[in-house]
Fold this sequence. Notes:
By secondary structure, this protein is mainly α. The protein contains 10 helices and no strands. Helix 1 (about 15-40) runs antiparallel to helix 9 (about 235-245) and helix 8 runs antiparallel to helix 10. About 25% of the residues are buried. The protein has helices at about 15-40, 45-75, 90-115, 120-125, 130-150, 170-180, 185-200, 200-230, 235-245, 245-280.
Amino acid sequence: xxxxxxxxxxxxxxxxxxxxxxxxxxxxxxxxxxxxxxxxxxxxxxxxxxxxxxxxxxxxxxxxxxxxxxxxxxxxxxxxxxxxxxxxxxxxxxxxxxxxxxxxxxxxxxxxxxxxxxxxxxxxxxxxxxxxxxxxxxxxxxxxxxxxxxxxxxxxxxxxxxxxxxxxxxxxxxxxxxxxxxxxxxxxxxxxxxxxxxxxxxxxxxxxxxxxxxxxxxxxxxxxxxxxxxxxxxxxxxxxxxxxxxxxxxxxxxxxxxxxxxxxxxxxxxxxxxxxxxxxx
Length: 281
């Protein structure tokens, strides 16, 4: 029997919209408007200061979003924390977020530390964080897929999955953690999501296939935009590097919605056929 998920988007629009506004607004609007407004509108300002301010503002928004998630996960009550966690603990999404954030921070710091005369190469380096993020997420996803296919069993609890279980595809952890914490689904959603994965072969295949598709597209997008950043005129690369991937990722997200609907329909039809089988026999 299919385990129903205690979650619907119709009651979560506000929380999801708030979370994604924090994610999308800084890089697309504040970051770009600050950079181009100061770089070309205030040529008398120190160039390093102009390069630093947009990323500093972005860092502030990132810190606020991170603090909100960490605060929810470290509450005394287990409302948001991973399953089977005996004490307040971060989830897999948050640890992965920290790893990616550390890599992007290292890139930005290294770029700002350069002593270039014309700042051309610095601007190109500072246009790479989105491409770097996609390549790192794709690589973490690839690792999860390889370990899942090989049947590698966890030597310790990994998020909500206890030790001794096979590592699950990356999309499984991303969906569980984002919906449970940012979407407000809580521990009830985590429990139902885990049971759904364990009880449905169609659902497991869907998580695997989604991980493969997003991994491949992220590798493609990362390679394309990294190449564009180093080939396009310097005046365009900051906008291309930071904002260019979002419409394409949005396209993959739209495809994902239709794909998931088709898979869930297939899952429901399989359940109905399974229930009819004894009567037909």
